[in-house]
Structures are given as C-alpha cells and as structure tokens.
C-alpha cells in the first residue's frame, strides 16, 4: 500500500524535474550531461539530498536565457548560484519568493534587469543575498528588512534608484537588519538623505558602502553608534553639512572615505581612531583650518588623502614618521612654510604629493630623500629650483605579474597559457575588485604573494583541483577600487571540468574565500570558461545517422557527395578569408559595400584576444553605443586601443566601414592612427594607437587631473586645427569630419592634440566640392545651424564645430549646460571696448593665473568660425594661420612641440572612460527632422 507521504515525495520529484526541465528549455548552453529524467543522477551543478534538489551552482557556464518562474517548484532548494553568466537576462521572477528554504541567492555579474521583486522578503532563511553587478532598476524593496538572518547584503553596481527604506509602523526597512554585517550599495542611483533611523547601537555592521550614488543631506549622528564598523564609504555623493562630531566613536574603522561631497563645517576630529589605515576626505568645503594636530597620532595610517580641503599652515614633521605611512596626497590646499620630512620618516613611505600649495622651501637631507615628492605648483618650484626632481611630475606605473616558480615558462599554443608552474593549461580567468583596501602602495610584491597564498589555501581547503594562481595588472579604477586580473590553473590535467569551474566560482561568489584583512571587502567577476562556450542544447546527429543508415545506397552516395562538396566549399571559404579579410562582409546588413583599404593590418580574433588579456574587465578602458574599448599590448610592447563592436550593431557596421576606409588613407601627427582591424568570428574591431591622456573634454572637466593653462590650450587648439586642416585640404579626396567636438580630440603623452572618431565622416569628391546633400548627423551644441536647416554639408560645418570647441577651451563649459548655449552666452556677454572683452565671469579661472595674452584675438577667431553663414567663416587653413598669430602674441613658437616629455605638465592622467568611448551630449542622426535647435 502506498502511503500519502510516498505520494507527496513522488509529486515533489515530478515537480522538481519539471522545474529543471523548464530551466533547460529556456537556457542555451546548459551542461551536456543534463540528460534523462533524474537530475540527481550526476547532472553538473546540481546537488541533491534524499533525491531532492538542494543546490544549483552554475557559475561561469556561459548560460544564456531567462530565469524561469517554474524555479518555485524546487521548494527544497537552499543554494542558487548563477554568477558570471552574462547571457542571463530579463527580470527576476516574483515566484522566487516561494523558495522558503533558500539560504544563498547569488546572481553576481549576470545581466538581470527590472525591479527586484518584493517577494524576496519572504526568504526568511536567507543568509547571503548577492545581486550585485547586474542591471536591476527601481527602489530597494523594503521587504528586505524582513530577512532577519541576513549576513551579507550586496546590491551594488546596479541601477537602483529611490530612497533608502526604513521601517514604519506598517512596513519593514533596512534598519531592522541588526544581524547583517555587510551593506553594499555602491554605484547605484540612490537619492534622498541617509535616514537617521537606519543606524542604531543594536546593529553589528562591519562594512557600510554607499559610494557613487546621489545621496544628499547630512550624515546622521546615529552613524557613530555602530561601533562594530570597519569600512565606511560615503564618497561621491552630494552629502552636506558637518561631519558628525561622534564619528571618532568608530574606533574599529580601517577605511574611511568621505571624499567628493559637499561637506562643510570644521574638520572632523578623528582622535582615537587608532585602527584607521586609509582616510580620504578630499574635495569638500571644510572651514579653513591649520593642519589637524591629531593626525600624527594615528599610528596605523597608511594613506592620507585630503586634496582640496582648505588646509593651511605647515605640515608637522612628526606626520612623516608614522610607521606604516605609504602615501600622502594633499594637493590643491593652502599649505605653506618650508617642508621638512625629518630624518626618521617612515620606511614604508612612497609618495608625498603636495601640488598646488604655497610651500616656499624644502629641507633636503645630506643622505638624500628616496621618496617620490611632488611640489609642482608651489613657490619652491619657481626660478632655478624648477629643475629639481620634485618640481617635475614623474610617470610612475606599478606593475605585477605572478612569476614562474623556479622554472622556465612553457611555449604554449595560442589558446593556452603557461602557468606559474610552467605548464600549458586553460586557466579560469576573471577580475578581483577590492572596494576598500587599507594600503596604497601597489608596487609592494608582498601583498600579492599573501593574496596568492590565501587564494590557494581557500581552494585547496575546499578540495578544488587547483594547481596554482596568477595575479596581474594591478590598478586603481575610477571608484578607487583596487582591481586585479586573476587566472586559476587546473591540477592534474590541462583544463577544468564543469564541476571544478562551478566549485571555484562558488568559493569566490559565496564569499567563502576570505582575503587578508588589508584587502577589505571584495567581489569577483568571472569570465565564461572558453571551452564551454560552444556547447549547444542538444544534437540531432543520431537522427541524421539513423536516417542515413536506414536509407538506400543512393542516399548514402548522395550524402557523401554532399559532404565532399561542403568540405570543399569550407576549404575555399577558409582560403578566401586568408586572402580577403572581408570575404564574409554582408552589404545587406546596412553596412554598405565591402571596405576598400590602403594598408592597415588585418589581425585575427585570437591575436587581439591575447593582446587584450582575453578582453578582461581589467583591460576595459571605455564603452559607448558602438561597443567597448580595451587596452592591449602588441608583442613589440606598443600599447593599442581595441574598439570592439557590439554584436548585431547595425550602426556599428557603417561606422566600422567608414572609419577603416578613412583612417587607412590619412596619416598626420594630429590625426589618430589606425593600426589595424579584425573582421572574423562575427567580430568587428578597430585597432588604434593608444592615446594615454584621454579626451580634451575630460581634461577641461578636471577628470584626468591634467591642469591646462593658457599656453597649453593654445597648443592644443593649434594641433586640432592642423589635424582638421589636413582632412579638408591635404587628404585625397578631402574629408569632412562631421562630428568635431572636445570628446573627439585626444591628448597624447605630450598633450599633442589628435582628431579622432571618423564614424560619421564623409568623403568630398570633386563633384561634391561645394556641398554634399546628406541626412543630418552630429552632436547637438556643436552642430552647424546652416547644415541643420539646409542639409547641405560643407567643410565649413566642421569650422563651425571647431569654433564651439574654441569657446570650450576658454570657458571649460560644455556647449549646452543648464539650458544655456555657450555661443549665445559669449555673444551676449562680450564687450570689445573692455579688457578681455569683459568675459571674466565666463572664462575658466585656470587660464587667468597669468594674463592670457592674445585672448581677444582668440575670441575674435572663434566668433568668425561661428558666423551664421558658412560663406563668411574662414577655412581651416586660415584658422591655423590665425592661431599661430595668437601664439606669437603670447610669446610662443607655433612650431614647438607641446611638451618635451610627458612629465612637463601638472597632473597625472587617469584612465577614465577613455578617448574612444561615446560620450556625446546628444548624437543627432536625423531621427527628429522637425525638432528645433532652441538653444541656438
């Protein structure tokens, strides 16, 4: 007799099988051993207890599709880890709230979108909730406050908006999570104030990370009640008011980031915070204050960053003797007197950056000073002292790569890599992000060795088949995260199986791996393991073979003939691809005829993949509507920028064709050079020379850290004008750029200007010399009104755009800013009867440090470029001559280089979005033919 319990168990198994079958049906690239009717019989990534599915771990499997709502029938599920599957998209089904036994919900680094369902608050057993690095939108569900067992809450790196939810009489909120250790909410779009109710003395939080949001208002006094806290990041918001006076109650805090807000009032007193390692209070408007006397008492301090905080007075010599101090950055303050680092400064000290202060002297010791000291922009660097090493910014790069272990690196095939133990293997790769490290010296190899040891211990203690790990490419990204490339090599064979990959992924996604304390909170983004990428849902090979076997001899012969013909065709196609890289170009996909080239190199996909470190996130330097841009290194050591189109980008096909055709025929020092291209495996990639100092727009906005004075702006203007003159007058046939703007003018290591991005450009043949009738394209704010109204494109349209760029150069304002158009603003404000045309309130203060000689003529030239009628505008050749005249008025030689070395300008360039990304104010392509340019 069958009992009701047995019937229930049977029903459960049937539902579980149906749920997994539903997942299999909607996902591509599921493991090939997902066969049969029993998922507990060894399906990869599936674990069962008593014939019931309790765990699904499928990290880095290359899965594609959506998460089926049928997952609700896996009611015994405790762990769901689908991390690092970029192909997983769509919303998170609300039925996930039915998985009442779930303890670990980990969806890191996928592409899920839409709101986080409120039903997630029903998962009462949840310990770890990691939804970071997706595209979730909408508010944080208040129901998360019901997850009273939650240990780890990570919603960072999404697009979440709205306010931080706290409880009321009827609704839950995050303040109820008194047992939670981790609040990770950085890099979202959260707004409103930080509720004072959010924090209390009952909370046991260790990490509170709200960086890079849109939070405003004051920092609540209740924050000082959470005395368990170790890392606090509130930077890159719009917080205002004074820092709470009780913040020094947080005596266990190691990392404190309050930079890039609007904080005011007195400098916070951090006396007693004896565990503080890393402190960044930069870019706030504190009261003018002498150097805080309590700073030299922070014995654990490794990094002190207080740029642009209105500090004044002398730096006490006792600061430099703090035993663990590595970095001091106090740029853009009012510090003065004579700098004296003393004779017993810290042996750990690497950098003292005091740019743009009022320091009059430096006491040098007889034994020398082996610390990088930067005093550029201080009185001490005037006159003959300007030749001192501390008056020149040195280019410094910290690099590291795990060395081979007493062996010679093996020579491997293109898709294998030599491990630290010198074996050719297929590593599992990805990127580690540390959100609040307690150190700043990236050149210290011991920190990497400790991390490698810690990783190996974690993998081996979890019985994973790992032979070795390799770390490389250490950098700090724009969020001040410490970023490292990680490769994990297999043990006993040259590749991992799926069980090994899912196990490693789970150790990293589930936070089982604990890095050394100095690294702070981290997350990992794994790449899809390459050897899994081609697996399909199923195969009908057996059916085909069966039909062939059961057919007649004639059918068999026909099949053999067909196979032979197919192989011959494939052989011919391969030969054609070798001789013609555009053999598979399809004009029907709105990409035009096959490109006609004059000389750039055709790279293979595998070559560029290798040069760009498998297109890892660590090598990503920009993105836009076209795709992503990666930094790469050629075998010669030369740096390149690889612009990789998104798959299926129709506009990208046209841009690809246009840019390679145009750039293959232009060669000028003020035009970016095309190194080569790749057109295979469905990829469209352009390879440019690497331009290290980003776009002109980034420098004008202050994002790169490069200070552009009047002299440098004149040289940049001349270089860009010469590049455009070459396109108009010397290229054969001439080229109209059609999208001249500050984002398309790049600055190399010597601040030479280079015109870039030819995706919208047009060739101007002899028959079209007067004008070209074309669909209007360009960027609002820079676009020629005459071209917009008549759709008649001439080289004078570029001249107009260049005039707008010239106004940007003297104001540092974007063309359209807060509804105001820069051309109109200048026209209305200028008075030619007064000094500098009475434009003092509009001019960028950075060019007013000394009298900008020739500025009036510069403005006159810009306004002539902005004449309403194209016929009244000068040619670019005439523009170049006038800029040379302005430079002579300013006492400059127009033929001299921008800088003799990359160290001769203030500021260190930072790899922000990078020159090749699409950062248009608004790219106009004729989509709104009846729109009015009201800003004009």
UniProtKB/TrEMBL annotation:
Which UniProt keywords are given for this protein, alphabetically ordered?
A: ATP-binding, Glycoprotein, Kinase, Leucine-rich repeat, Membrane, Nucleotide-binding, Receptor, Repeat, Serine/threonine-protein kinase, Signal, Transferase, Transmembrane, Transmembrane helix
Pfam families per the UniProt record, alphabetical:
LRR_1, PK_Tyr_Ser-Thr
Predominant subcellular localization, coarse grouping = membrane
* Record localization: Membrane
Instruction: Please give the superkingdom of this protein's source.
Output: Eukaryota
* Signal peptide (residue range): 1-22
Q: Name one GO molecular function term.
A: protein serine/threonine kinase activity
Give the protein's recorded name.
non-specific serine/threonine protein kinase
- Whether Transcription counts among this entry's keywords is no
* GO cellular component labels: membrane
Q: Which residues cross the membrane?
A: 543-566
Q: How does it sit in the membrane?
A: Single-pass type I membrane protein
Q: Which residues bind ATP?
A: 643
Instruction: Tell me where in this chain the Protein kinase domain is found.
Output: 615-887
CDD domains noted in UniProt: STKc_IRAK (cd14066)
Q: What is its EC number?
A: 2.7.11.1
């Amino acid at each position: 007799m069958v009992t009701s319990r047995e019937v229930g168990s049977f029903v459960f198994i049937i539902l579980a099988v149906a749920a997994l079958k539903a997942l299999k049906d909607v996902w591509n690239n599921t493991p090939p051993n997902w066969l049969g009717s029993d998922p507990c019989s060894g399906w990869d990534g599936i674990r069962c207890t008593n014939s019931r599915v309790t765990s699904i771990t499928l990290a880095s499997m290359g899965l594609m599709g959506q998460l089926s709502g049928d997952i609700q029938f896996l009611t015994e599920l405790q762990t769901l880890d689908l991390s690092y599957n970029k192909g997983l998209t769509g919303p998170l089904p609300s039925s996930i709230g039915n998985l009442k036994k779930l303890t670990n919900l980990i969806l890191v680094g996928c592409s899920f979108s839409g709101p986080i369902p409120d039903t997630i608050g029903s998962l009462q057993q949840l310990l770890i909730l990691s939804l970071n690095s997706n595209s979730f939108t909408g508010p944080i569900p208040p129901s998360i406050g019901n997850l009273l067992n939650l240990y780890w809450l990570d919603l960072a790196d999404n697009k979440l908006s709205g306010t931080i939810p706290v409880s009321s009489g009827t609704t839950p909120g995050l303040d109820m999570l008194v047992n939670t250790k981790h609040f990770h909410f950085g890099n979202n779009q959260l707004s409103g104030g930080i509720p004072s109710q959010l924090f209390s003395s009952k909370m046991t939080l260790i990490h509170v990370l709200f960086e890079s949001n849109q939070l405003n208002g004051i920092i609540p006094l209740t924050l000082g009640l959470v005395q368990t806290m170790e890392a606090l990041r509130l930077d890159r918001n719009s917080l205002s008011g004074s820092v709470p006076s009780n913040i020094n109650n947080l005596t266990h805090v190691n990392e404190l980031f309050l930079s890039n807000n609007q904080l005011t009032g007195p400098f916070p007193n951090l006396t007693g915070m004896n565990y503080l390692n890393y402190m960044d209070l930069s870019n706030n408007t504190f009261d003018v204050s002498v150097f805080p006397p309590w700073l030299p008492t922070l014995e654990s301090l490794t990094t002190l960053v207080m740029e642009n905080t209105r500090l004044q007075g002398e730096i006490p010599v006792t600061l430099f003797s703090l035993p663990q101090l590595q970095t001091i950055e106090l740029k853009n303050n009012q510090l003065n007197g004579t700098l004296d680092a003393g004779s017993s400064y810290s042996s750990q000290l690497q950098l003292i950056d005091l740019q743009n202060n009022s320091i009059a002297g430096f006491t040098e010791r007889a034994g020398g000073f082996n610390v990088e000291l930067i005093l550029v922009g201080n009185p001490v660097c005037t006159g003959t002292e300007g030749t001192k090493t501390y008056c020149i910014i040195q280019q410094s790069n910290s690099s590291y790569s795990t060395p081979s272990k007493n062996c010679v690196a093996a020579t491997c095939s293109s898709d294998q890599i030599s491990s630290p133990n010198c074996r050719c293997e297929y590593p599992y790769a990805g990127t580690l992000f540390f959100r609040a490290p307690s150190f700043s010296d990236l050149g210290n190899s011991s920190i990497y060795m400790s991390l490698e040891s810690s990783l190996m211990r974690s993998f081996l203690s979890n019985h994973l088949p790992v032979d070795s790990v390799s770390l490389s490419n250490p950098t700090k990204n724009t969020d001040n995260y410490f970023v490292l490339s990680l490769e994990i090599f297999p043990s006993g064979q040259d590749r991992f199986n799926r069980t090994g990959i899912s196990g490693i992924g789970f150790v990293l996604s589930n936070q089982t791996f604990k890095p050394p304390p100095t690294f702070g909170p981290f997350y990992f983004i794994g790449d899809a393991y390459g050897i899994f990428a081609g697996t399909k849902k199923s195969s009908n090979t057996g059916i085909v073979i069966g039909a062939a076997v059961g057919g007649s001899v004639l059918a068999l012969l026909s099949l053999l003939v067909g196979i032979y013909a197919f192989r011959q065709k494939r052989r011919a196609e391969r030969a054609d691809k070798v001789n013609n890289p555009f053999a598979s170009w399809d004009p029907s996909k709105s990409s035009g005829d096959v490109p006609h080239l004059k000389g750039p190199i055709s790279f293979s996909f595998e070559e560029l993949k290798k040069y760009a470190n498998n297109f890892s996130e660590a090598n990503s330097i920009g993105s836009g509507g076209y795709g992503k841009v990666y930094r790469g290194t050629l075998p010669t050591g030369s740096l390149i920028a690889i612009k990789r189109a998104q798959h299926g980008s129709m506009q990208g096909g046209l841009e690809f064709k246009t840019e390679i055709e145009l750039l293959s025929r232009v060669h000028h020092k003020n035009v970016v050079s095309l190194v080569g291209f790749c057109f295979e495996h469905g990829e469209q990639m352009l390879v440019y020379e690497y331009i290290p100092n980003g776009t002109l727009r980034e420098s004008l906005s202050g994002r790169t850290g490069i200070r552009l004075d009047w002299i440098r702006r004149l040289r940049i203007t001349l270089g860009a004008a010469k590049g455009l003159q070459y396109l108009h007058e010397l290229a054969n046939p001439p080229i109209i750029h059609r999208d001249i703007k500050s984002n398309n003018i790049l600055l190399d290591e010597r601040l030479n200007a280079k015109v870039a991005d030819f995706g919208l450009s047009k060739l101007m043949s002899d028959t079209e010399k007067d004008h070209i009738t074309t669909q209007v394209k360009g960027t609002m704010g820079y676009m020629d009104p005459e071209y917009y109204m008549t759709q008649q494109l001439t080289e004078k349209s570029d001249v107009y755009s260049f005039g707008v760029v010239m106004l940007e150069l003297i104001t540092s304002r974007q063309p359209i800013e807060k509804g105001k158009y820069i051309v109109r603003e200048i026209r209305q404000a200028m008075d030619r009867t007064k000094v500098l045309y009475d434009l003092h309130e509009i001019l960028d203060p950075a060019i007013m440090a000394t009298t900008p000689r020739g500025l009036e003529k510069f403005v006159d030239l810009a306004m002539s470029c902005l004449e309403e009628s194209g016929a009244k505008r000068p040619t670019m050749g005439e523009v170049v001559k006038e800029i040379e005249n302005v430079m002579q008025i300013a006492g400059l030689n127009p033929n001299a280089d921008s800088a003799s070395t990359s160290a001769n300008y203030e500021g260190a360039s930072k790899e922000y979005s990078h020159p090749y990304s699409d950062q248009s104010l608004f790219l106009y392509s004729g989509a709104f033919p009846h729109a009015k340019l009201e800003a004009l």
